[in-house]
Design a protein that fits this description.
CATH class of the largest domain: Mainly Beta
Organism: Christiangramia aestuarii
Protein name: DUF4595 domain-containing protein
Strand content: over 45%
Helix content: under 10%
Keywords: Signal
Number of helices: 1
Largest sheet: 17 strands, antiparallel
Number of domains: 2
Order of helices and strands: HEEEEEEEEEEEEEEEEEEEEEEEEEEE
Low-confidence stretches: 1-27
């Protein structure tokens, strides 16, 4: 037994020594190469003229080389590059001793709303002592100056998962598409298309979900006296619920009643909501009663507002009931109560960039 233990000990030493030698050799081999690290996406503006895109290296090159990037974007791009893209390939010459490579992009500054465009390159070929890192894609985000300052997206990350919403607009700067992705125990992707009447009122939203792309959820909007007074929900063309809305003399949403419809057309009250406001028009209280087997009451109180408008939150499309940024939100569901304190961060231009609470962070981006 003692001899066997000594043998195992010597075997472990031999294996460890071999691994250490291999690691050292591998490390020495890597020192002969320069790694291209794309990192996060880079941003350029449509009206920015010629702009340089940097490809950083982890160390200086020891020989001349070449980087060939393949354009992966399928959408038509109105831009020029230096060097020029030929047959979908962008070739960049790299000198010895270089700490990075670069090329130039000049977007066409048109007067058309194109929304944020994603330009994607992948490494097609490398020469010299250049090698690629794990991230093989260079992502460039081209901002649309016609939408400058308008909300583009927000991303919420919490202990339960994450949610991302991205907004797209037409030439009249009306919202036409919202892309949603939820990552959690029950994650999904949703794409919603917005449709308008000739006078600019929202009349329909059609949503498609990734788990059932052949089906769709359709919401119809009916207007009266300049406000949405009813919405009707249809699944694959069959109506299954509707909601009625009431407003005060200032146009603030003050109440809603939601009804379900069964296969026979029988209706039942599902929920009632009421909304109260502070004197300055900011939302104070949102109260909802659900009518299931027993009544359930849900209430949200908003307080400690910042003197800044909320650019994102809407209860109804086009009806921005939550106009401000509350610093305190109190929740009451049945006998359960809890609250959250929110803090906010703003960019140099004064726009909201981040909201934080315990276990939750939301970041906001703009065109």
């Amino acid at each position: 037994m003692k001899a066997l233990l000594i043998f195992r000990y010597l075997l472990l030493i031999a294996v460890y020594s071999a691994c250490s030698t291999d690691d050292e050799a591998s490390s020495n081999d890597l020192k002969q190469y320069t790694v291209i690290r794309f990192g996060e996406s880079q941003n350029i503006s449509e009206n920015g003229g010629q702009q340089e895109v940097i490809l950083p290296f982890d160390s200086k090159t020891i020989s001349v080389g070449e980087i060939q990037l393949k354009l992966e974007s399928n959408n038509e791009l109105n831009l020029r590059t230096v060097p020029e893209i030929l047959n979908g390939i962008l070739s960049i010459q790299v000198q010895a001793g270089a700490s990075h490579a670069s090329f130039f992009i000049t977007p066409e500054d048109d007067e058309i709303v194109t929304n944020m465009q994603k330009i994607v390159f992948s490494i097609y070929a490398l020469s010299g002592n250049l090698i690629k890192a794990n991230n093989n894609q260079l992502v460039i985000l081209l901002s649309d100056d016609e939408l400058m300052g308008m909300p583009r997206a927000y991303h919420t990350r919490s202990n339960e998962g994450s949610e991302t919403k991205e907004f797209f607009y037409d030439n009249a700067k009306q919202l036409i598409t919202v892309e949603t992705e939820v990552i959690s125990g029950f994650g999904w992707k949703e794409s919603s298309q917005y449709f308008y009447s000739e006078d600019g009122n929202l009349i329909k939203v059609i949503s498609v979900f990734d788990e059932d792309p052949e089906s769709n959820l359709e919401t119809l909007y009916y207007w009266k006296n300049g406000n949405i007074h009813q919405t009707v929900n249809k699944y694959d063309g069959i109506s299954f619920s509707y909601t009625n809305y009431d407003y005060d003399q200032n146009g603030n949403l003050i109440a809603s009643s939601a009804y379900d419809k069964d296969e026979l057309g029988n209706e039942s009250l599902e929920a009632k909501s009421s909304y109260e406001y502070y004197s300055d028009g900011r939302l104070k209280t949102e109260s909802t009663t659900f009518y299931f087997d027993e009544e359930l009451n849900y209430k949200i109180n908003y307080d400690n507002y910042l003197p800044v408008l909320n650019p994102f939150t809407q209860i109804l499309p086009g009806v921005n009931a939550q106009k401000g940024l509350p610093g305190l939100i109190e929740y009451k569901f049945g006998e359960d109560n809890y609250s959250r304190i929110y803090t906010y961060e703003f960019g140099d231009d004064g726009k909201l960039t981040k909201r934080k609470a315990t276990g939750e962070t939301t970041t906001y981006s703009y065109h």
